[in-house]
Every structure is written in C-alpha cells, then in structure tokens.
C-alpha cells in the first residue's frame, strides 16, 4: 500500500527542504515550500519633485501575496515600512512623504498569505527629490535680451528667466545663422557647463549628470526640440532642461519652450550612484563666449 503525504517544510527553501522518512512503510512524499518568498530584484528609483518613484520586478511564485516598501535616511540604518501593496503585479510605488534635496534609501520585500516575509532587496536604491517645472519660455538674445537668460539658482521666483547678461544668469539662448544655441556663462571665474544628451521621450529619461563630455564650444550647444541638456553650474549644482518646442517668428527660430529640473543637493549628479563631487571648469579651459 502506498500513501501520499503532504509535507510542509516550515521556514525552509530549496536545498533546505526537509525530508520525512516513515518507518515501517513505504511512502511517497510531496514537498510543499512554506518558507518566505524570494527576495524582490531589479529595484530602482526615479527622481521627482518632492516625490520618488520606486519600481521592482515581480516575484514569480504561487505563494506571493504582495510587497512591502521600506525607507531609511541612510544605507546602513533601520528601514521603516512605508507602504504595503497587495498582488504579485503591484511592482511600483510613489513616495510623496519626502523633501527636495534630501537623500532617501529604499528597499522592498515580498510576503505570502501566511505572513512570511522575504529579506529586504539587495540593490542600493536611493534618490534625492529635486524641484522641477514645465513650459518655461526663453527667447534668443537677439530677439529679447531681457528674457533670454536662465538663473537656475533663482528657480523659486519670477527671476528664473532673466536678462542674458544678468550677474547670476547661468545660461542664455542665442541665435547664430538662424540656429538657436544654449550658452553657459562664467560666474566667479568658473563656467556653467552644458551637455546635449540627445533625444529623450521625457526629461526623466536622463537621471544623472555624466562626468565627461561637456561642451567647450564658444557658440554653445545647438538647441533641438526633444533633446535634453544637462547643466553643471559654476558652484557645482546639476540641472537638466528638455526643449519641448522651438518657437519661430516670421519663420525664424526665436525662442524655446522647455521643462527643467534643478538638484538642490550640491554635488549630487542627478541621482545616480554617488560620483566624486567636482567643480565647474575654470576660465582657462575655454575662451569666454562673446
């Protein structure tokens, strides 16, 4: 006679599943895992304005009931659960309980219907929210010199767009041979550097400032609709601009409509893993733009 026994190996997984040997009879044993689910993988974040989006891969297993999202103020500190999401496909969460310029660390676990929880995810997932804005217009210096400059440090006020030669203007738009360019200015002996990162579907496609590739052209960087540009300021802050549209007047490019984000955490290169804090290039690097 053969008897089929269902055995739960409580708290064990994989090779750790227990085996039952019953004396005096021959048994078939079915091993049913009753340990915690697998650890979620692929955890990453996207920076927002007073918000951080957290994403991860679904844990494939019949026993997964949902996920817990955890946050800490440092990588080695205590993580606190900030959200409980039910359903194996619930693989994203937006944390709005954050402040711009402050770095937060995130982890995710998986749990089953019996209350077993996996370990926290292993990725170094952290982010620093930063202010952002949409649909700002800056005109070419040759068209409207009073509204052709951008003072990133003044992002809270109406002075964000200013005169091209204002003392604190980090950038200005110029037109040369019918083409618009974005020029970085020099403040206190250091350049505000600009780099074109090419076409993006949205500004969030660019999540960090590269360490190399900054323009040294005295004409600046050509402005193209759909392209996102990263700025490294003279005082070592990072920002990004995406050209939503090039505005024409009498058939000639005259202004840009752009979205922006400015990282108020000094030296933070748009929230990739930490990079060495650098300073803007000195005036000896390139000739001062006219």
Features:
Immunoglobulin-like; single chain; 21 strands; disordered C terminus; disordered N terminus; five-stranded antiparallel sheet; mainly beta; 290 residues
Count the DSSP helices: 0
Oligomer: single chain
3D shape: elongated
What is the terminal-to-terminal distance? 96 Å
Give a verbal description of the structure:
With 290 residues, this protein is mainly β. It folds into three domains: 3-34, no CATH class; 44-127, Immunoglobulin-like (Sandwich); 132-262. The chain contains no helices and 21 strands. The strands form six sheets. A five-stranded antiparallel beta sheet has the order 10-21-20-19-17, with no helix packed on it. Strands 12-11-13-14-18 form a five-stranded antiparallel beta sheet, with no helix packed on it. The protein has a four-stranded antiparallel beta sheet with strand order 6-5-8-9, with no helix packed on it. It is elongated. Mean pLDDT is 83; it is low at 1-25 and 271-290.
Question: What's the layout of helices and strands?
Answer:
Blueprint: E1 3-10, E2 27-34, E3 44-47, E4 52-55, E5 64-72, E6 80-86, E7 92-95, E8 104-112, E9 125-127, E10 132-139, E11 149-150, E12 161-162, E13 171-176, E14 179-184, E15 186-187, E16 190-191, E17 193-199, E18 221-222, E19 227-232, E20 238-249, E21 252-262
Parallel strand pairs: 1-2
Antiparallel strand pairs: 3-4, 4-7, 5-6, 5-8, 8-9, 10-21, 11-12, 11-13, 13-14, 14-18, 15-16, 17-19, 19-20, 20-21
């Amino acid at each position: 006679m053969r008897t089929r026994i269902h055995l739960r190996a409580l708290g064990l997984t994989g090779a750790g599943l227990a085996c039952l040997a019953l004396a005096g009879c021959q048994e078939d044993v079915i091993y049913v895992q009753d340990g915690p689910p697998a650890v979620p993988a692929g955890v990453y974040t996207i920076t927002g304005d007073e918000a951080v989006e957290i994403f991860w891969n679904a844990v494939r297993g019949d026993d997964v009931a949902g996920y817990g999202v955890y946050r800490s103020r440092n990588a080695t500190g205590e993580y606190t659960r900030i959200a409980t999401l039910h359903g194996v496909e619930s693989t994203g969460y937006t944390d709005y309980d954050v402040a711009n310029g402050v770095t937060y660390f995130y982890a995710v676990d998986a749990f089953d219907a019996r209350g077993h929880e996996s370990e926290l995810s292993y990725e170094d997932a952290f982010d620093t929210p930063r202010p952002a804005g949409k649909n700002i217009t800056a005109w070419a210096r040759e068209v409207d010199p009073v509204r052709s400059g951008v003072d990133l440090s003044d992002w809270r006020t109406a002075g964000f767009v200013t005169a091209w030669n204002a003392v604190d203007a980090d950038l200005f738009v110029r037109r040369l041979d019918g083409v618009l360019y974005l020029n970085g200015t020099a403040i206190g002996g250091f350049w505000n550097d600009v780099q074109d990162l090419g076409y993006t579907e949205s500004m969030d496609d660019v999540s960090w400032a590269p360490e190399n590739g900054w323009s040294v052209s005295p004409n600046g960087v050509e402005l193209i609709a759909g392209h996102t540009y990263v700025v490294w300021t003279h005082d070592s802050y990072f920002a990004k601009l995406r050209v939503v549209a090039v505005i024409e007047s009498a058939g000639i490019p005259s202004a840009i409509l752009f979205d922006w984000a400015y990282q108020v955490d000094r030296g933070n290169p748009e929230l990739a893993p930490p990079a060495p804090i650098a300073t803007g290039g000195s005036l000896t690097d390139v000739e001062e733009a006219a």
